[in-house]
Amino acid sequence: MTNVYNNILDLIGNTPMVRLNEVTKEIPATVYAKLESYNPGHSTKDRIAIHIINAAEKKGLLTPGSTVVETTSGNTGFSVAMVCIIKGYKCILAVSDKTKQEKIAYLKALGATVYVCPANVPADDPRSYYEVARRIAEETPNSIYINQYFNELNIDAHYQTTGPEIWEQTEGKITHLIACTGTGGTLSGSAKFLKEKNPNIKIIGVDAAGSILKSFHETGKINKEDIHPYQIEGIGKNLIPSALLFDKVDEFVRVNDEMAAYRTREIALKEAIMGGYTTGAAIQGLLQYGAANSFKEDDVVVAIFPDHGSRYITKVYSDEWMNEQGFVNNGVHNYDSLYKT
Ligand code: PMP
């Protein structure tokens, strides 16, 4: 039988790439989006969930009925919960209170226990989702903590899968890889593999305005003044994750909430690809990079589209939400112009 699988986990990885024909027209290069929403858990995080849990099993750290704990903005939680169901583990997740209700409902639908923690407290505050998850993992016997921000297997998952897929899909022609960085695992693991194949491939990270990653890359210092609350979920940080291999990144670009939201909507309307908020962030980052660096016609750019837009229906795809942020028709960008009449 072909295209028939034993369980849902066998469908992780091998995601398709699609050419972008409209939104990146101003760049002379060919641009492909790698659609990580085609993973069964609808995001790139399926790759790290299965990789880290398989590794823990090999080490004998997990037995039937064990508990898997994680901090998550939603996507990793969904992926971990999915893997836990098939493998027979309990899943406990600590999420930030920036996470939309529908994302939390998704996690609960897959049987996870969810703790909601304040987003705007320092990472070492006992109320932060890092500290809450760490404490739960310490106090729960027979448990593992995925710890995606500081787990080298996060990088390795993408080194083993995402990087090789991109290399094969572009037949080694890729010249630029661009991805949003949260933990940094996607970009770092893919970059590590691709740079081994061709060190000239440019690796571009996309950071959020309000996060410290870009300035840390440039100065080696944490600039506390960079830190302020922002809306884009899943990218940027107020800490330095060890899953981000800064030496593999050639350049960071920083995108703001408004432009990332605008691009997300534009990608849906012009390419018919309904991606999450960081899909727009990635393309906004690419356009900003393209404005400052010239692309050639035979350049081949791959942009990672990390997840699906269905999780953002009350956020970036909601006109009310956009209005509340002051993003719609504010004189800078006119949304109406995106809708064909
Ligand atoms: N986009 C979204 C929606 C995410 O949830 C994440 C993961 N936090 C990223 C991008 C960034 O991926 P990574 O953690 O591998 O850097």
Automatic annotation (TrEMBL):
Superkingdom of source: Bacteria
Domain Tryptophan synthase beta chain-like PALP: 9-307
Cofactor: pyridoxal 5'-phosphate
Stored InterPro entries: Cys_Synth/Cystath_Beta-Synth (IPR050214), TrpB-like_PALP (IPR001926), TrpB-like_PALP_sf (IPR036052)
A Pfam cross-reference name: PALP
Coiled-coil annotated spans: none
Keywords: Pyridoxal phosphate
CDD domains with a match to the protein in the record: CBS_like
Entries under PANTHER family matching the protein: CYSTATHIONINE BETA-SYNTHASE (PTHR10314)
Protein name in UniProt: Cysteine synthase family protein
Organism listed in the record: Kaistella pullorum
